[in-house]
Amino acid sequence: MTHLFRSWNSGERILVLIASSALVLAVAPGADAQIKQPGSHGSYSVELEPHLLLLWRDHSRDYWDDGSGYGLGMRASIPIVDNGFISSINNSVAIGFGLDWGRYSHQCWLKNERDWKGDCSNDEILIPVVMQWNFYFTRAFSVFGEPGLAVRHSRWSWPDGYCESPSGAVPCDYSDSDTDVEPVLFLGGRVGNEDVSFTFRVGWPYASVGASFFL
């Protein structure tokens, strides 16, 4: 775990430390105040959550770097089970739909020819659909898990790149893209009240911090 933390860049470390601090502050005072009271959480029709993203790694390519990226997004979660899967504790289940955008800045190179390299970028669109399982510890603090799937569209751009030719590498405006479906998994928490809260999540393929508005 220590080795993993050291391998993160400064942005990744700051985001994880913020989330960890919020978790400690929220759980410390009377964490069992509501968890044993089924159904005692606030009632809402939809949770709207704008957020900032830290994407851990780019899609793997043998001619693209795979550093982290930054972006923004929106999540809408609609409750479907008010008293959750465990009737003896305070929990609920929602379906979450998202739209996220992220951007990476890289070094790119011609396949198998790192002597021909330069700056490039990747823009990603993610459309996650998740099951959000919520656990309410106090009126101010709740946690959730989110397994699901996401459509992921990536487009790489190397405007001053190089292309292969019969005579060797030649300058060109090179681009590439793909679209696939992949699993996602997040763990997160909220600190606030039944109207608005600070919301954080850590998982794959990104971490996020934002605000939740309960309508």
Describe what is shown at a glance.
By secondary structure, the chain is mainly beta.
Description:
By secondary structure, this protein is mainly beta. It has a single domain, classed as Porin. Helices cover 11% and strands 60% of the residues. Strands 1-2-3-4-5-6-7-8 form an eight-stranded antiparallel barrel. β4 and β5 form a beta hairpin. The longest helix is centred in the N-terminal third of the chain and has 18 residues. It is elongated, with a radius of gyration of 21 Å. The N terminus is likely disordered.
Low-confidence residue ranges = 1-7, 28-32
Q: What is the count of structural domains?
A: 1
Task: Provide the CATH topology.
Answer: Porin
Q: Classify the helix fraction into a percent range.
A: 10-25%
Question: What Rg, in angstroms, do the CA atoms define?
Answer: 21 Å
